[in-house]
Please model this.
Amino acid sequence: MVAQTNIKLPEVPSSTARPDIDDKLERLKRAADGFAKTSIPERLRMLRQMLEGYVAVAEESVLAGCKMKGIDPGSQLAAEEWLAGPVVVVRNLRLLMETLERIDRGLPPFDPARMRTREDGRVIVDVFPTSFLDKLMFGGFSGEVRMKPGVSPADVLARAAGHYKTPPAERKGIVALVLGAGNVASIPPTDTLYKMFVEGRVVVLKMNPVNAHVGPVIEKAWKPLIERDFLHVVYGGPDVGKYCVEHPIVEEIHITGSDKTHDMMVWGPPGPEREERKRKKTPLLGKAITSELGNVSPLLVVPGPYSEKEIAFQGESITAAIANNASFNCNSAKLLVQPKGWALRDKLREAVRASLARVPLRKAYYPGAEDRWRQLVDGHKTSIKIGDPKAGELAWAMIPELDADDANEIAFQMEPWCSVISETAVGTSDPVEYLEAAVKFANDRVWGTLSATIIVHPSSLKDARVKAAVDKAIDELRYGTVVVNHWPAIGFAFGSTPWGGHPSSTPEDIQSGKGWVHNTYLLPDDDIEKCVIRGPLVAKPKPVWFANHATAADIGKKMVAFEAAPSAFKLPGIIGKALKG
Model:
């Protein structure tokens, strides 16, 4: 069990005054050219300082998150704040360093041996595991990036690490605004790292009020960069965000948040004028913007010969994807898409319900959660409420047997952003017919393009007909990350796997956003189509992100040290804890 500590948490600023914002932006502007022109050895020194700084504040970050989210920091539930906070940030920093070290030695940013070409000409880059130690830590998991059709291996190598191919003297300094997410501690710092060390921008990071406690942690950890005016942090609500977006010094914007916030910035308030601007493709915002904006995340279940233990494992796996962070994740499991007429449909649904019933209810810390919950749950007669909520909590809820043909079904179009999962059925119990229907349904009827899961039994893949249908489904799903058998959040955490919405979205219909983050191999953003991750149907030992993992927080703390400096000597302690989960 992780011991409690007496670390004193800093005060969180409520709002940054306009003159202070102006001053910070002026400082960034003056420093922008200098940062853009810094050498790789100098950037490596910065990244080393940032890594050491974040390791030093890791526990403070976790305690601040636990306090805000109503988590006992001495409980195993604190694992969420370790694993989705400092572990992800430290891993991201280290992988960026390893890539820049390759470039500094005159090598491509990734080993060209990781690249292969399919028979149809599609280029694939294997990005996970990144090392032998990754392979030992995450046995059975693999990740690849699929490039867009028409992109050749030579194109990938020529366009990768584009910022670093421009001679330093020719680089132009640019001030970027990062509008930080309000739910997960690692998102604001890793989004900032991408703008700075992949794209070469200086950054003003505007904290979301919900997640504002992360700001002082970042300022403390990355103080050397703030002192050089390469990075500044500001605080406040929508008014501060609007002021920064419209500020003449800010040239580029990245937002992780709501599509509604994105469209308000880009197109203006809802109404006829906005629709006319969209029709004419004349946005109000004349600045480059990238975004990651959420999803109604579907899970496609391919019918197969699942045993009782396999159904139970997947029930726990789906529960983990619902319950983590009280379900305030853009990649939370939100829509179970099962085959019509499948004999095990009810069993899987019951496995999820029973697993959720064993998970304690959580503080609904995100604004508006109760209203969204009631809109969905009270609006459906089939809703099943799980648990007895206290004040400030929400019950887990399942909305089964939705009509996949109902064009007005809100659960297919509104991201719940609360403790709700829905269920529907399409196609038939034939795997090939099911997949054809499920992919069409997910692409055309379900809102979002961020991430999707396909659950498929390994025995089913021995049938060439089924395997071809699964491969085709992975190809055709319009999602930035498609994960086989597990929660797509692992694609966010691995770092070498690019994270973002499928590039089919447009500014007029933004869906889950445009652009990529993480991508620590510096693959060319414009050439990436999607990331595909595969894992075993039943992973052993129990995945550390499972809601009922008994030693997850202890593992999370150890993984900060491991990711900062991986070593085979550190593995036994982690694996030993994992086996007790």
About this structure: The chain has a mean pLDDT of 96. The CA atoms of residues 37 and 170 lie 8 Å apart. The chain is about 40% helix and 15% strand.
